[in-house]
Amino acid sequence: MPRTRTGARASERDRALALRIGLRIREARHRAGLTQQQLAGDRYTKAYVSALETGIARPSMVALQFLSERLGMPASHFIDEEHPAWTRIEVDMRLAAGDWRAAADGYETLLADATDDSVRADLLRGLAEASARLDLGKEAVAAASEAARIYAAAGRETDAALARYWLAYGLYQSDNELDARSILAALLEQVRGGLQVEPDFEMRLLTSLAAVESRAGQASRALTYLEEARGLAADLDDRRRAAFLFNLAINYREVGDFEGAIRAGTQGMALYRAAGAIFESARIENDLALAYLASGQVERARELATDARRQIEDTGDERWMAAVVDTEAQIALATGDVEGALRLAIDARGHAERSGNEFGGLMAMLTEARALRLSGRAEEAEARFDEAAAVARASRAPSRLRDVLREWADLRAEAGDHRGAYELTSEALSVN
Question: What's the pLDDT band for 80 if we cut at 50, 70, 90?
Fold first, then answer.
């Protein structure tokens, strides 16, 4: 029988060593052409190998000897601190192949020994992209800002532009739409002024600006950017065209064109699946669920949300789990299952808080407030609307703040507090 215990979690002191060993095990396994299950053999499990490769667990010498023999390498290869776990070309290839976690790990490993500023800047830019792809906004901001500074000092304008793009991406993921918009708009002006970056860079800037405007509640402005980008998207590969369609679907839904959202989202999901991008496919599937829900097709929405949850659960990504569970809560509300919606909204909020997903937490709070209101728990609903409004104000999300204030005003009006309702409505009208 295979073993199922993954071993004790590494302490903070041993974390670096566990990660280094894990990177080398994964590197050797890929070179040998083995899957995690094949490497585990009959003695261990795929989960155990995965835990080793990600640094969650550190192997015993017995386990390391077993694995090294299967990989055809001495055990010392994995624990020798002087042995380079990655080469630059290998890490860049992982990034190009969409293996974001491996790429991020590789860049971090190479950065530990990099002293030349030019090399550091390139590694930091790669780390920024990998972090952004993993939805790790703060990490992307830290890496991209340092890379941009080094590039600018060296007069490498094109490279600095790419670093600032990933800086804007990270800021957007960190719910700082204002600074993200400013950087993206400045980059678009540079490109249209003659700066040569990459063939699809202008399209990427337009798509990213659309995402920022959509988050800020400016769906019509976002669609304008996307219509500009449409003509530039024809020659993209499947993954990038799918990303474009994903943004298009979101904004169609925001302006109430649910048929357009379903059409674009379905096309994007098919392209992502063809490219093997399961995580991105699940994100579109979740958005499609919301589009079907808004169009009144509740059962289809439920099917899509269930499938999206299964795929996101497989990735262990709590940031996006918050979004999927909140979608399930909204579906429960639409079917009259108020208590189920409340449980799911609270669960979604927990995922958001643990992953630092402020926007997801805000959406879960709003869903929770709606459920409390429908269940007749007016005082609790009032408190939750108050909390949601505070978060929306702090995160500079005007569209969401208006939604919160208007629904909160309705709650007060129902309770006979017309003066309070008037104050909230007035604030909602003044938000811009």
Answer: low
Instruction: Give the chain's mean pLDDT.
Output: 85
∠ at Cα 367 (366, 370), nearest 5°?
A: 90
180/416 Cα distance (integer angstroms)? 42
Contact 229, 186 (CB under 8 A): no
What three-state secondary structure class fits 295?
Answer: coil
Instruction: Kindly report the pTM of this predicted structure.
Output: 0.59
Residue written as token pair 């006979």: 416
Alpha-carbon distance values, 362 to 84, 246, 324, 325, 340 (Å): 44, 22, 14, 13, 19
DSSP state of 57: B
Are 384 and 369 contacting, i.e. CB atoms less than 8 angstroms apart?
Answer: yes
Burial 352-361 (b: 16+ CB within 10 A, else e): beebbbbbbb
C-alpha to C-alpha distance for 378 and 407, rounded to whole angstroms: 12
pLDDT the model gives residue 10: 35
Q: Are 170 and 141 in contact (CB under 8 A)?
A: yes
From residue 257, alpha-carbon distances to 190, 262, 269, 294 in Å are: 33, 9, 18, 10
Read off the pLDDT of residues 109-168 as tens digits, 9 standing for 90 and up. 889 888 889 999 999 999 999 999 887 889 999 999 999 999 999 999 999 999 999 999
What values do phi and psi take at 57, rounded to 5? -125, 155
- Which amino acid does the sequence have at 227? E
pLDDT digits (tens, 9 = 90+) for 268-324: 899 888 877 888 888 899 999 999 999 999 999 999 999 999 988 887 788 889 999
Which CA distances in Å does 23 have to 1, 72, 85, 241, 401?
A: 27, 16, 7, 32, 44
Scanning 97-218, the segments in alpha helix (DSSP H) are 100-111, 117-133, 137-153, 157-173, 177-192, 201-215
Taking the alpha carbons of 187, 192, 194, 199 in that order, is the dihedral positive or negative? positive
Helix (H, G, I), strand (E, B) or coil at 23: helix
Q: Which of 128, 134, 138 is nearest to 172 (CA)?
A: 138
Residue 86: strand, helix, or coil: coil
203, pLDDT greater than 90: no
Distance CA 165, CA 108 (A): 20
Rounded to whole angstroms, the Cα distance separating 178 from 188 reads: 16
Tokens of 74: 């001495």
